[in-house]
Design a protein that fits this description.
single chain, alpha+beta, five-stranded antiparallel sheet, three-stranded antiparallel sheet, 4 helices, 18% helix, globular
Length: 239
């Protein structure tokens, strides 16, 4: 009986240790994310989810600089979610949507500090989350329509740094990570009335998105790691 009790206790302790290890915050290979304090005033980027024949999800994401230049205020208004397959995920992705409108072209989450997707983000320590992991930092989408306003201290409106998202995209996923729809951010306003230095105008994709939907698992992401690594390495030089 005594031996059985010891074995049971050890098993319980091992299970607890395992559970704790999967929730321990992870620092990226380039350190924790840095708070962005120099976002230019009155700069606004907008992403409009396109009219796709593969989904009813529509909406707009507006990103503007905070009044003191610290962080970015994201205002999100999205509707038309499927009646099953949620709660839904949404993230900033590393690459823009290509001209075909296929969301697979956006590659992985925006992750300039090379943190990785696992273990899951701890929302109480957003500096140790991927910059683009909105679901991890702010929670998943569980209502339709979905409206929210988030201030992300770790996103940048300054071209040329890793946390800059103005030349990137937003992607909305099913709970199983299948991509539903996506859109590029486009500059809609700035104090100078022109594109910030280092930014180029990009047309909104006109594709119908009828290409096969791609489900991205950890293994699928690893297949694009070489290209992602190049992008991340380049970003690291300007962090």
């Amino acid at each position: 009986m005594h031996f059985s009790t010891i074995v049971t206790s050890l098993t319980a302790a091992a299970a607890l240790a395992s559970a704790q290890s999967t929730t321990t915050p992870v620092t990226g290979k380039l350190g924790d994310a840095k708070i962005v304090t120099n976002n230019p005033p009155s700069t606004v980027y907008t992403a409009n989810l396109p009219n796709k024949n593969t989904t009813n999800v529509r909406g707009t994401i507006v990103a503007s600089s905070a009044s003191n230049g610290t962080g970015v205020v994201f205002t999100i208004s999205v509707r038309g979610f499927p009646t099953s397959g949620g709660p839904f995920l949404y993230h900033l992705h590393d690459q823009p949507v290509d001209a075909s409108g296929n969301c697979s072209s956006t590659l992985a989450h925006l992750d300039p500090y090379i943190r990785g997707e696992q273990p899951p983000c701890d929302p109480t320590q957003p500096q140790r989350c991927q910059t683009g992991d909105w679901s991890g930092k702010f929670g998943k989408i569980s209502s339709d329509p979905f409206q929210a306003t988030h201030t992300d201290l770790y996103s940048s409106l300054v071209p040329g740094v890793g946390a800059f998202f103005g030349n990137r995209s937003i992607v909305i996923h099913y709970a199983n990570t299948t991509r539903i729809t996506c859109a590029n951010f486009v500059l809609s306003n700035s104090t100078s009335g022109t594109l910030p230095s280092g930014t180029t105008a990009r047309p909104v994709p006109t594709g119908t998105g009828s290409a096969p939907v791609v489900t991205y698992t950890g293994a699928a992401i690893s297949k694009v790691a070489p290209l992602g690594a190049v992008v991340l390495a380049a970003a690291a030089l300007v962090l």
